[in-house]
Amino acid sequence: SKKLTVAMKLVWQSLYCVACVAIVARCGGDLFASVMDLRELYGHEQDMKTVLKNYLELEEKKLSKIREFYESLPEPGNSVEYIKGPVNSFSILRRAKREWDSKLADLVYEDNTHELMAFVAEKRHKFPSEEDLRGGLIGLKRLLDTYKLPMPEITNGSLSLDNKPMSVDDCFEIGLEAHKQQLWEIACIWFEESLRLKREGAVRGDQRGHVTMFEILDYLAYSQFKMGRIYTAYRNTQDLLKIVPEWAESRVEGNLVYFKAMLSPEELEGKGTEEREEDHIPIGTSLFWGADDARVYENLCREPIKLTPREERKLKCFYLSKKNTLNLLLNPAKIEMLHYKPRIYALREVLSNVQMDRIEELGKQKLYRATARNHVSGQFEPADYRIAKSGWLNNNDDREVFPIINQRLEDITGLEMDTAEDLQLGVYGIGGHYEPHYDHARNNKDTYGFGTGNRIATILFYVSLYYIPITRSVSREMR
Q: What is the CA radius of gyration of the chain?
């Protein structure tokens, strides 16, 4: 066997993402980077919904009592005639003291917000930050770019577990968040989809939703202008002028004049204004690779490598067993050949469900926003090309589970685990990814500081995969 440095990593994925790896440094605004944090946030929301329901029930009871008192009051009439009756006169005195001054006042000033406000105060530190919203928006855009998803497939419910289509208001609200974050390209995408849904609804006579056509076109034209799409901003402002309310008319007219002055006579006729697909540079393109490499990477994410029938015939699945390794004789490793040349294999069911549950349980408290080394400063810091949270586990965290895992890997690979690094967890959130990278030091120095040399192998476990096919809304967990 060989004593060599081995990096072991576990990866949790959410929706569509690539793999893996991380280091340590907590920073604010990192909920969007982890599916575990998003799952916890969903739990908080459900708890808050229960507390809010209790609050509404108490308020409804209070309003019911106030309405009951209101309906018991005499109808408006002649006051002189009303107080002629001594009973009526006394009733006024009694109501003013017992009901208006005491009973009603107590109801009006009754505060049912204590439980709700206490819950919000307790959970507020776990709420998303502006950075989370920004990261989530960029993550959604990355998914659209990487998988070339048409917006209608997003908004028709194909990527929703409940198949619920998005409304005009839903799309507009996402566009509005992108607008606030000055993510103009993302804002345009969602405003344009909101506009499409609004127009389709108008054709069907469906006017549901609070957002108006004026609001959509107004925000869309401004976002297009900020992107440099002056012609489309000009055209949408022309449409806007047809429906503009009086209070905004002068502003819209001024915008139209301004946009027109920025366009040449040819551009005003629509010549040379077409947007080109090749102008798109994927979000997150790092300093280490260019747009052409990024497009190859995105294409590989969209479609698996196509094999010829001859290549497929060479692929096989088999059990790995070694005569001199008792564990493999009793429990052979399951191996699947994915590609013949170069040889690519996948190990199946190396970890048990019990082991994975234990790793997840231990790892929850050790996850931090993943960072990458800045090639200029040498410091580790969050980066757009690495969106995840990570943590580290070793034998000291569980002296039963991890020795068994290490022994299993040693049996399968023939590599001793004495110099292996700690088990690294990688958890991905909205559009989580790590761009293609070298997983070893390229200068052949002992970069990792363990005194064991450079990495020669990375063992990568995909612990869970939350997968939603484009063609139908089915959720499944694969382990």
A: 31
